[in-house]
Batch of 2 targets.
Target 1
Amino acid sequence: MDGVEPVLYPLLRKDLIAQGPRYVVQIGDKVIDYNEDFRLFMATRNPTPFIPPDAVSVVTEVNFTTTRAGLRGQVTCKLTVV
């Protein structure tokens, strides 16, 4: 992903609409059933992705980037523990 598309904001904010016993969310011009177990993971190779200010409050950014030295330290720690 290169950024958060505005069409996803209702889903990210969980702007759910109750329709009887079920919940739906409107994405663009479509109304889609919502499952409580749904999780959205977006990934990018960009080390500094642009997250718009209005999406920062509903998106959790996790950086899994590691350096060679950091990776070496993780491997060394695991080898000494075993």
Note: The chain has one domain: 6-81.
Target 2
Amino acid sequence: MLDKGLLKRDDGAKPQIYRPASSQQRTQKRMLGDLIDKVYEGSSAALMMHALSSKKATAEELKQIRDLLDQMEGES
């Protein structure tokens, strides 16, 4: 994880202390982008279709997805 840039190491401390290199949200976004590129050939739509067909979303999750889509359409 250190080599992948996910962690930072404090070499001055004994024992060595490891800390996240980025916030959880930033790391998730980066890793998801890599997944979309490598597995779904760059298609976020393919990822979403696969995710939504693999496991039933709750009503609240579907509302959040609709809200996000509405927000994204408004930005176009």
Note: The chain has a mean pLDDT of 92.
